[in-house]
């Protein structure tokens, strides 16, 4: 499941509006995945402070095909952080 979480986190797009406003956030979701690899249920464990992040996560989860977590429940931590380099 660690690989599944990492794969999704690495494919998650930073919302342009949040990038523009230099917003960062941390959210945590509990997911239930069907046997066919599609998302069955999503529950918020730690809510995003900014709705733009929640919308982005939900949008991408709706299209995500799970490979390793079929028929399972797991916790998905998401961290939106700007990579600022000098």
TrEMBL record:
<dbReference type="InterPro" id="IPR037682">
    <property type="entry name" value="TonB_C"/>
</dbReference>
<dbReference type="GO" id="GO:0016020">
    <property type="term" value="C:membrane"/>
</dbReference>
<dbReference type="Pfam" id="PF03544">
    <property type="entry name" value="TonB_C"/>
</dbReference>
<dbReference type="InterPro" id="IPR006260">
    <property type="entry name" value="TonB/TolA_C"/>
</dbReference>
<dbReference type="GO" id="GO:0055085">
    <property type="term" value="P:transmembrane transport"/>
</dbReference>
<feature type="domain" description="TonB C-terminal">
    <location>
        <begin position="1"/>
        <end position="86"/>
    </location>
</feature>
<protein>
    <submittedName>
        <fullName>TonB-dependent receptor</fullName>
    </submittedName>
</protein>
<keyword id="KW-0675">Receptor</keyword>
<keyword id="KW-0472">Membrane</keyword>
<keyword id="KW-0812">Transmembrane</keyword>
<keyword id="KW-1133">Transmembrane helix</keyword>
């Amino acid at each position: 499941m660690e690989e599944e979480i990492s794969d999704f986190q690495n494919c998650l797009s930073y919302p342009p509006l949040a990038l523009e406003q230099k917003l960062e956030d941390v959210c945590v979701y509990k997911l239930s995945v069907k046997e066919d690899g599609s998302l069955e249920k999503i529950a918020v464990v730690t809510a995003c402070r900014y709705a733009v992040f929640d919308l982005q996560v939900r949008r991408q989860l709706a299209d995500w095909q799970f490979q390793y977590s079929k028929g399972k429940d797991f916790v998905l931590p998401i961290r939106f952080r700007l990579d600022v380099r000098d």
